[in-house]
Design a protein that fits this description.
heterodimer; A: alpha/beta; Rossmann fold; B: alpha/beta; 12 helices; 7 strands
Chain lengths: 330, 333
């Protein structure tokens, strides 16, 4: 199969959906060519589709999301780009109080076919305001979907599915994955919303993760395999809705769970997954559930300090050993 | 000189009188603890929505505020379904889930009231952008209170409206108080018309208690928007006779100020005007009033007698796409 970069896969998804549906349009800062988006995801699209369908905006995050919501209410299907997830906080009223709630507040009078693409995460010395992993904030809000692709194929397939959905989606890409390449099928490629993906099958423990965590977990699983430990890696892909069945099936099989995420541990979405598994599979767990996550501090710029704060492959390996080495509880 | 015909004046009077009766009834019901939820009435401000809506078509859109009863009634929302909403019934416009601050009727072009000051302004601009993209000739009215001018969302939206030349009419309903804070305490300049003009579109100051003046200014703004001329800003000076919300006595207002504005009550003024120039007779006015009061009474009786919404309604309408609903159904055991 052909190999495509994550960034290019996203670009293909946007191009195909712009071609497929006249109602789809892109709106955000610095999207137009020749710049083509801060991470080049919209490269070539304004040249192909024109400046009305690839609408460059002022630096007005709240205004952008509000305007996109308004456009969706009259029948368009906007795809917003917010340059950084950190900047989504500037639009948090529109995202949390308006976009997420208008269907409910109006008793179902309106549908909101709106995708908000943004990117988060670190490992790039982007420091405290350009590298946060804020997914838990938004996963907490009923009315939104939160998708976080880890591979080029998932990025393309999930984005296309999101654009076709009539509910609002926060679509969080990862800045350190844009140049990763991976297999992406030719032609139409859609990924179902709300389905986790077992990225590596294994029998000794389950690692549940998403976004950059998938890369860490797969690298850790390779190391663990050399040490005789067979890890299963479950990429949730969608935090909301969360595919509990796939997670629970895996933990039923292995009896051990490590949750890995790049966001800080306190209040992170890993706690939600740990609690869910604890509630539903308590008696089948062979070891306490363990989390691998960022330390409780803002992101430092210094590369060596960032490595201290953000989870590393070795942290995942160590966590796996802890749960596997625990004398079985059952 | 009279610009409007007798039947046009009657239409304006009916709208304003209906809004007034609706909100007076809300105050009464709220005082009797019969309505749940937060209520902000616009008594004293009725000339603004009546005058603005005078030029709107059914397919034109509005987005308004927490003090939006008058705006949505003037746009055609039915008081029966509104009372059902305020009584928290499933037959309400928003199935009882939105209430006064979120009253919405998309079928009549009402994109919604809004509980967040200034948040509706970018939504209105985006809707106008969408209409322009779709090649339609309808437009969007964005109502907001005077306090919204101090919020970034307002300025982001006005800049975008200017940039994209979208069919929108900004209506600042200046009742002179941002909740309890008078303009001089939240605004660096006494008059905000230059704010709007600085974005490059026309702005007009209007006596917001004179419905004919509002209608005339709104007519120019609507015509400009429909012809592709972009946005207009209307600064409508008016006054709310009561406090910010039902329960606020408005003690922050100087002695005599409410009385001086109540003496300029726009409903009373229009009534006197149509009587004086013979557009409507005393008897005709009394019949109109009685008809409206009967309609309100019947609406209240009907809405009050409806059953409470069934509990399963609470979890409906969070998402709408069947794909999303199926994904949730499959994921939470």
């Amino acid at each position: 199969m052909r190999r495509v970069r994550y960034r290019v896969a996203l670009n293909e998804a946007l191009r195909e959906e712009l071609e497929r549906d006249e109602r789809v349009f892109l709106i955000g800062e610095d999207l137009r060519d020749p710049f083509g988006g801060t991470y080049n995801v919209t490269q070539g699209l304004s040249d192909q589709f024109g400046l009305e369908r690839v609408l460059n905006t002022p630096i007005s995050e709240g205004g952008i999301v509000g305007a996109a919501l308004g456009a969706s209410l009259v029948g368009l299907r906007p795809v917003v780009e917010l340059m950084y997830l950190d900047f989504a906080l500037l639009a948090s009223d529109q995202i949390v109080n308006q976009v997420a709630k208008i269907t409910y507040m109006t008793g179902g009078q309106v549908r909101v076919p709106l995708v908000i693409r943004t990117q988060g995460g670190g490992y790039k010395s982007s420091a405290a305001q350009h590298g946060q992993s804020l997914e838990a904030l938004f996963a907490h809000i009923p009315g939104l979907l939160v998708l976080m692709p880890a591979t080029p194929a998932d990025a393309k397939g999930l984005l296309k599915s999101a654009i076709r959905l009539d509910d609002p989606v926060l679509f969080i890409e990862h800045k350190s994955l844009y140049l990763e390449d991976g297999e992406v099928p030719e032609g139409e490629h859609l990924i179902p919303i709300g389905k986790a993906d077992v990225k590596r099958a294994g029998s000794d423990l389950t690692i549940v993760t998403w976004a950059m965590g998938v890369k860490l977990a797969l690298a850790a699983a390779t190391d663990l395999a050399e040490q005789g430990i067979d890890a299963e890696v479950v990429d949730v892909r969608s935090l909301v809705p969360l595919d509990e069945d796939t997670i629970l099936d895996s933990v039923r099989k292995t009896g051990r769970l490590v949750v890995v995420h790049e966001a800080v541990r306190r209040g992170g979405f890993g706690a939600e997954i740990a609690a869910t598994v604890g509630e539903k599979l308590f008696h089948q767990l062979k070891a306490p559930i363990t989390r691998v996550a960022a330390r409780e501090c803002p992101l430092p710029m210094a590369p060596n300090l960032e490595r201290v704060v953000l989870p590393q492959v070795a942290d995942v390996v160590a966590a796996a050993h802890r749960v596997v080495d625990t004398p079985s509880l059952v | 000189m009279r610009v409007l015909s007798s039947s046009e004046l009657e239409r304006l009077y009916r709208t304003m009188r209906l809004i007034r009766a609706f909100e007076e009834k809300i105050r009464e019901l709220h005082g009797e603890n019969r309505l749940p939820g937060f209520m902000h009435v616009s008594i004293g401000q009725e000339a603004v929505p009546a005058g603005v809506s005078f030029h709107l078509r059914e397919d034109d859109l509005i987005a308004t505020t927490h003090r939006g009863h008058g705006d949505v009634i003037a746009k055609g929302a039915q008081v029966e379904a509104m009372f059902a909403e305020l009584f928290a019934r499933a037959e309400g416009l928003c199935r009882g889930k939105g209430g006064s601050m979120h009253v919405t009727d998309v079928s009549r072009g009402i994109l919604g009231a809004n509980g967040i000051v200034a948040a509706g302004i970018p939504i209105a601009v985006g809707a106008a952008l969408g209409l322009k993209r779709l090649g339609r000739d309808n437009l969007v009215v964005s109502y907001f209170g005077d306090g919204a001018i101090a919020n970034g969302a307002c300025h982001e939206a006005m800049n975008m409206a200017s940039l994209w030349k979208v069919p929108v009419v900004f209506v600042r309903v200046n009742n002179q108080y941002a909740e309890s804070t008078p303009q001089a305490h939240y605004q660096g300049i006494p008059n905000v018309v230059p704010f709007a003009e600085s974005y490059g579109f026309p702005a007009e100051e209007v006596d917001g208690n004179d419905v004919e003046a509002v209608a005339a200014a709104a007519g120019r703004a609507v015509e400009r928007a429909r012809a592709g001329g972009g946005a207009t800003f209307l600064e409508c000076l008016t006054y709310r006779h009561h406090g910010h919300n039902i329960g606020d006595p408005g003690a922050y207002r100087p002695a005599g100020e409410p009385e001086s504005w109540i003496a300029r009550d726009p409903v009373v003024a229009l009534r006197a005007r149509v009587l004086a120039d013979g557009a409507l007779s005393q008897q005709e006015l009394e019949e109109i009033d009685a008809g409206i009061d009967d309609r309100i009474a019947a609406a209240v009786e009907w809405a009050d007698a409806l059953p409470e919404p069934s509990p399963e309604l609470a979890l409906e309408d969070v998402y709408s796409d069947p794909i999303t609903l199926a994904a949730f159904a499959g994921s939470s055991a």
